[in-house]
Write a structure and sequence with these properties.
By secondary structure, the chain is mainly alpha-helical. The protein contains 7 helices and 6 strands, in the order E-E-E-E-E-E-H-H-H-H-H-H-H. The protein has a domain of about 130 residues. The strands form 3 sheets. Strands 1-2 form a two-stranded antiparallel ribbon. Strands 3-4 form a two-stranded antiparallel sheet. Strand 3 and strand 4 form a beta hairpin. The relative contact order is 0.09. Pfam families: DUF2225 (PF09986).
Length: about 230
């Protein structure tokens, strides 16, 4: 009996150049999540494939890169800007096959650039930046991980302050939690404490109990670390 490949090809039409191109997707049965890191990064079983590698679609013809979270709407003038800044500079590259982690990171960077030029929602840009940080974590490149974590935190903050989150998969407390946790990981404890406190304040209004519990855990960890530092200096 012929074994089923973990991968399958999907044909898409680029919304910028309108050319058709193929991208590779991963079958769900080959993805095994065993746990999550404190910033919600999925931790995969050693036998699992990583679906993060295939989250972004890259048009091989013009370079425009996007994900399922991108809106179909293009603000007036945004397509012209994408053509000028990306398509006119693009050298043919095919991201439609099985990807390495470096190719996956490059696809996210292309999508972030495309999203910024398109004026995509802050929540979408935050998700791209966060996934980029996760992949850099896999490579052990902490400087780049921190750079994209803070980009994600800034975009989540903009989303919280300016966008309607009610129709998205991201609850308000989850966005607040990620702002806090990403700042904590980057060493900005003051901002982290302020946003963890916001999560805990909303606990009675939120059905996302797991996130509230995680915020409380991080808050206690910070207090314990501060206590130990104070004792070490006295």
């Amino acid at each position: 009996m012929e074994s089923i490949s973990p991968f399958y090809e999907k044909q898409l039409k680029c919304p910028v150049c309108e050319e058709k191109f193929q991208t590779t997707k991963l079958r769900n049965r080959f993805v095994k999540v065993t746990d999550h890191d404190t910033d919600l990064m999925p931790i995969y079983d050693q036998d699992s494939y990583n679906p993060l590698f295939y989250h972004v679609f890259v048009c091989c013809h013009c370079g425009y890169s996007f994900s399922d979270e991108f809106s179909a709407y293009f603000a007036p003038g945004s397509k012209d800007k994408l053509i000028e800044k990306i398509k006119d500079q693009w050298v043919y590259q095919d991201y439609g096959k099985e990807r390495t982690i470096v190719e996956a990171i490059n696809s996210y960077k292309l999508a972030l650039y495309s999203g910024l030029l398109k004026k995509e929602k802050h929540l979408t840009l935050a998700g791209l930046a966060l996934r980029t940080a996760w992949l850099y974590r896999e490579l052990g490149r902490q400087k780049e991980e921190n750079r994209f974590m803070m980009m994600a935190a800034d975009q989540y903050k903009e989303a919280y302050e300016t966008e309607d989150l009610t129709s998205t998969q991201m609850s308000e407390v989850k966005v607040l939690y990620l702002i806090a946790e990403l700042n904590r990981r980057a060493g900005d404890i003051e901002t982290a404490v302020a946003y963890f406190s916001k999560v805990i304040e909303k606990q009675h209004m939120s059905s996302d109990k797991k996130i509230v519990d995680m915020a409380r855990d991080r808050w206690h960890e910070i207090r314990e670390e501060m206590k130990q530092q104070k004792e070490a200096t006295t």
